[in-house]
Amino acid sequence: MEPADPLVRDEASREDAEVRERALDPRASFIVQAPAGSGKTTLLTQRLLALLAGVDAPEEIVAITFTRKAAAEMRRRILDALEMAGAGIDASGLEPHERKTLALARAALGRDAGRGWRLRETPARLRIMTFDALCARIVAAAPLRSGLGAVPEVTEDAGGLYREAAERVIGRLEAQGAEGRLARLLRHLDNRPDRLRDLIVGMLERRDQWLRHLGEAGNRLDREALEAELAALVGERLARGREAVPGAQREEIEALLRYAAARVDPDGRHGALCGLQGLPDADAASLDRWRALADWLLTKNGTWRSPNTKKKVDHSLGFPSPDETGDPAERELRGTMKARIRNLREALRREEGFRKVLAMVRALPAPRYGEAEWAVVEAMVAVLADAVAALREVFHERGRTDFIEIAVAAVRALDGGAEAPDPPLRHLLVDEFQDTSVTQLELLCRLTAGWRDGDGRTVFLVGDPMQSIYRFREADVGVFLRVRREGLGALRPEPLTLRANCRAHQGLVDWINGTFRRIMPAADDETTGAVSYSPCVAVRPAPDEGDTVRMLAFPDGDGAAEARAVAKAAREALERDPEGSVGILVRARSHLAAIVPALREAGVRFRAVEIEALSSRPVVRDLFALARALLHLEDRIAWLAVLRAPFCGLHRADLLVVADGPGPIAGRLGDPEVRRRLSEDGRRIVQRVWPVLDEALGLRGRLPLRDWVERTWIALGGPACFCAPTDAADAEAALALLEGLDAGGDVEELSALQDAAEGLHARPDPDPGIRVELMTVHGAKGLEFDTVILPCLDRRTGRDGDRLLRWAELPLLEGTRAVVLGPVGATHGEEPEQTAFVRKLEALQAARERERLLYVAATRARERLWLTGRVTLDEKTGMPAPRRSDTFLGLLWPAVGERFELVEADGGDGVPDRPEAAGAPRETIRRLPPGWRPPEPPPPAVADLPPPPEGGEARIAFDWAGETARCVGTVAHALIRHMAGLDEEGRRRFVGEGLRPRIVALLRREGVRQAGLDGAAGRVEAALRSFV
Fold first, then answer.
1. At a CB cut-off of 8 Å and minimum separation 6, what does 254 contact?
2. pLDDT band for position 956 (cuts 50, 70, 90)
3. How far is CA 146 from CA 60, 135, 152, 617, in A?
4. Are 1000 and 967 in contact, with CB atoms under 8 Å apart?
5. φ, ψ for residue 182, nearest 5 deg
6. How far apart are alpha carbons 843 and 358 in whole angstroms?
C-alpha cells in the first residue's frame, strides 16, 4: 500500500474546503457523501446556520436525524455557536472550520436580532427532530386526514400488541371451517397455529414495508400485473446475460452450443438446450434455456467447470465419448469438440463478470406463479389484511400505537392534502441519509411535492453509503444511490463528496484504503446493495512508532488464547495512554462470552454498553420473581425464587421443606407444621416475610401493578440488598417496565414480563474513569476510540428466520419497479422459486452489508487497530485459512491474510470459550440477617408558619381552586379521551371494577398529596360516570 503523499493531503484538504463552501449555498440542494471522520456533523451545523441567516422564521427549516441523541447533539452545536457569536469571541485563535462556523453563527444571530426570534432563549423554535417526531407532528396537525385522530400513546415495544392481534385474527378465521383461508394456511404449515401466529407477528413488525405492495385491504393484489413485472424483470436480467458474454469467446460458445444442442438428451438435465442455434433469446420464455446454459458452463456451486475433460464432459452435456462410435470421422469430431470445450473453459476462467451473471440467471424466478402457489399467496395476503385490521382494533382498545402506525398515518395525511405548516417548510436537512427506508423516502417525497430547483426551497441530504448498516431496521442503501442518480421528486440535488479524514492518522487511513478497495465492489448496484469504495485522504500524518494495525490469527478452538490476547492489548493500550479510550467491538453480544472474564482476570475495568440484558441483573430477576409470585399463586418456581432472594434468604434445606408438599407455596408458609420443620433462622425469616407477603396478596387488584410490587419489595427489604452502583437504576427500570405492562393491576400475559425485559439492557457502570468500552459494531456507529480491538472475526451472527411472505422491489430500465412476492414454503415441500429468489437476493444484500459493517468497525479507530480471529490449519501444508467465508475474517483474508500473525496454541487453561466451562467460582450469596427490620422513617417535616390571628376564623385552604384542581382536570381529561375511543359497552366496563385504584395512581403521579387523594379521586370518578 502506497502511503499518501503530503501534496495529495494538501490537495484533498483544498478540494474539501471548496466542497464545503459549495454546500453552504442556501439556494441549491445537495446530496453529500461524507465518509467516516470527514466532519459530517460540522457541515450540517454550518448549513443550518447559513439557512438561518436567510429565512423569515426558524420554523421554515426542518433538520431530521435518526436518534434523539443525534438531534440533541445538533441542537447543542447550533446553540453553542450562537452563544459564541453573542459573546464576541476573538476568531483569530480558532481553527479554520471553527472560524467559518463562528462567522455563520454571527450572520444567523444578526437575523435573529432583526426578526426578534430569541433562539437562545427559545431553542424549541429550532425544528431539529427525529423521523418519528416529525411523523407525530404531521399526524397531530392533521388528525382527520391521518385517520388516527388524537395521537395516542406511542410504545417502543409493541410485541405484545402484535401477538394479541395475531391470536385474534386466527381465532376469527377458525370459524371459517375446513375451506377457509386459515385452514389452507395451516395445511401449508403442517397444522401449526403457533407457527402461523409467530409468522403473522413478524409481518406486523415490518408492515410499513409491504402494505404499499399488497394494499391495506388486500384488494390490490393483481396477479396479471405482478406476473407482467416478473416477466419484465426476467427479460432484463437475461438481456444483461447476453451483453455479458465475452466478445472473444462468443462465437466459440455459440458453435459449441449448436454442437451440444444437437446431441444432448432431450429428457435430461440440459434438455432445454435442444434445438439451439446460438445464444437463447433475452425474454422470459427463454428462461429455461438460459438456466440450462448456466448449468452447461457452471458447477452446482456456481464456479466454472474444470478444463479437465475427464471431469464429466460426456453425453449429458452434449459431448459423447469418441470411444462410443465406430465412425472415424465422428470419432475425430468428438475428440476435436472435447478439446475445444476444454479450451473454452480455460478461457472463461478469467471472465468473472460473466460467471456472476450466469449465477444470477440460475437464481431468477419463474415469471409465473403456479396455481397452488398463487392460492397460498392470496390466502396469506387476505390473512395479513385481517391482521392489520385486528392490530388497529387492539391499538384503539389499548389507547396505544407504534411508530410504524404513526409513520403510515403521516404519509396518509400528506396524501390527503394536509394543510401546509405555518410558517411553510422551505428547507429540509436529513442526516445519515444512507439509513433511510423506503417508507421514509415516501414521506420526504410528499413533504417536498411541488418543489423545484431554484424556487428557494432546498433539500440537504448527508450520509455515507459505505456506512449503511441497518438493514434489520429496514434501512435501504439503494435509496441513497437512487436519489443521487435520479433526484428526489422534481429536485435534482447536486452530488458532492468529501475526501479528507480528520479522525485517523495517515497510517490507518492508508491501511483502510488499501484493504477496502479490495473488499468492496468496483461499482454501485442498487439491487444488491453493492457500494463501491470511495477512498479518503488523511489530514493527520502517521506517528513515528511502529505498526498501528496488528492482525493475530489463533488456531481454531483456542478461544482462550484469543480472549487473553484481547485483554493484553487493552491493558497495553491503557499503559501507553492512561487517558486514551479503547473500544472492543463485536458483531454480536454473545461473542464477548470469553472476553469478559479475560478482562476481569487481567484487571482491566470496562463498561459494557447495551451488552447485558436487564433481566440478567440479580435485582431485576428478584423483582420479576416477586411480580410473578404475587400474580400467580401456583407459580412454585417464582415463589421459591422470592424466598431464596437476598431480601428473604432462606437456605436450601429450608426451601426443600417449604417445597416438599402439595399446594401453593404461599399456603405452606402460613402452615404451623411446615414452620416447625424449618431451621431456627428459617423460622425467623418466615416470621418476618410472611406477614408482608400475606398483606400483599390481600391487595391484589386494589393497586396499580407497579405500586403493588414496589411497596411489597420495599417492605421485604429489597433496596437494602443493593450492592452494585447500578442496582437502583436497574430496579427503577424494572419497575417502570411493570408500570408499562399494567392492565388493571395485572398483566395480560405473564410471559410478557420476560419478553419485555429481554429487549432492555442493563445500565453500564457510570464511573467516568473507565476507559475500555465493550459494545457491538452497530452500537459504536458514530463513536471513535484511540484504540479499537475487533475480536472474534471468524464468528457469525444469527440467521434470518422464516417470514410468511418475502418481497423484493427491483428497478427496471424504463424507470418502473418490479415487485417479487414469495410465500413461505410448505413445511414438507420445496420452496417456491420466487421465495428462493428473494431469499438469495437478501443473502447477497446481507453479504454487501457485512462489508460495510467491517468498514464501520475499522474506521472507529483514531490511533491503533487490532484484529483477531481463529483459523483452521490445513492438515497437509499447515497453512491457515478462515473457517467460513461469510465472516469478517473471510472478507479480510483475500485482501490482507498474509499479514496475519499466526499465534501458536499455548495450552493454557485460562479463559474458556464458554463461561460455564470454566468451573465458575462458588457464588457468594448476599442476604439480609434473619431478624432484619426496615429502618424507622424520619420524623415528618414541620412547617414553621406564623400562628393564625387570635380570635380569627380558621382559614380554609381553597385547594380545589389551585394545583389539585389542575391535577383532577388533567387525569379526568386523559381518561375521558381514552373512553371516547370505546364503544358504549367498553365505556361501562372501563368505569367498572378497578377504576378507583387506577385513578389514585394517576393522581399520585401528578403530585396530589395523600391527604387529598380520596377527594380528588371521587371528583374524577364522578366526572367519568357523568360522561358515561
1. 277, 278, 279
2. very low
3. 22, 10, 12, 42
4. no
5. -60, -45
6. 17
Say what percent of the chain tops pLDDT 90: 49
Q: Return all residues near 343 (Cβ < 8 A) that are at least 6 apart.
A: 307
Distances from the Cα of 822 to the Cα of 233, 319, 526, 827, angstroms: 15, 38, 20, 15
Helices (H), ranges, 451-590: 477-486, 506-519, 559-576
pLDDT digits over 985-996, tens only? 667 767 765 677
Q: What's the pLDDT score for residue 909?
A: 38
Q: Is the sign of the CA dihedral 111, 117, 120, 126 positive or negative?
A: negative
Residues 6+ apart with CB under 8 A from 688: 930, 931, 932, 933
DSSP string for 604-615: ---EESS-SBGG
What separation in angstroms does the CA of 92 have from each of 24, 96, 418, 470?
22, 9, 49, 42
Q: Tell me the per-residue pLDDT of 42-98, one tens digit each, with 9 for 90 and over.
A: 999 999 999 999 999 999 999 999 998 899 999 999 999 999 999 888 888 888 889
Residue with cell 438469495: 840
Pairing mode of beta strands 582-586, 785-790: parallel
Q: Is the peptide bond before 768 cis (omega within 30 degrees of 0)?
A: no
Q: Which of 55-64, 614-623, 894-903 has the lowest mean pLDDT?
A: 614-623
**Cell reading at 530:** 453493492
Q: Which residues are CB-contacts of 402 (< 8 A; sequence separation ≥ 6)?
A: 154, 155, 156, 158, 161, 395
Q: Residue 419: what are its φ and ψ, rounded to 5°?
A: -65, 145
Number of CB atoms found within 10 A of residue 907's CB: 8
The pLDDT of 722-742, averaged and rounded, is 84
Residue 298 is given by DSSP the state B
Q: What does the pLDDT read at residue 730?
A: 86
Q: Give the span between the Cα atoms of 714 and 650, in whole angstroms.
A: 18
SS3 861: strand
Q: Which residues contact 552 (CB under 8 A, 6 or more apart)?
A: 562, 565, 866, 867, 868, 869, 900, 901, 903
* Segment holding 555, helix H or strand E: strand 549-555
How far apart, in whole angstroms, are the C-alpha atoms of residue 297 and residue 241? Answer: 13
d(CA 586, CA 793): 8
The 10 Å Cβ neighbour count of residue 181 is 18
Q: Which one-letter DSSP state was computed for residue 897?
A: G
Grouping H, G, I as helix, E, B as strand and the rest as coil, residue 46 is helix
Q: How many other C-beta atoms can be found within 10 angstroms of the C-beta atom of residue 523?
A: 7
898 to 513, 552, 573: CA distances (angstroms): 17, 11, 25
Average pLDDT over residues 414-419: 70
DSSP-assigned letter for residue 126: S
Taken as a whole, the chain contains a residue count of 1028
| Helix ranges, 645-774 (H) | 652-659, 665-669, 672-676, 680-698, 705-716, 727-741, 751-758
Beta carbons of 558 and 905 less than 8 angstroms apart: yes
State the CB neighbour count (10 A cutoff) for residue 1021.
17
Per-residue pLDDT tens over the stretch 845-889: 999 999 999 999 999 999 999 999 999 988 777 788 888 889 999
pTM of the predicted model, to two decimals? 0.81
For the chain, what is the radius of gyration of the CA atoms?
Answer: 34
| The residue to which cell 399526524 is assigned | 139
Is the separation of the CB atoms in 182 and 200 below 8 Å? no
Rounded-to-integer distance, Cα 403 and Cα 205, Å: 10
Residue 65 CA to residue 71 CA, distance in Å, equals 6
The pLDDT score that the predictor gives to residue 959 is 41
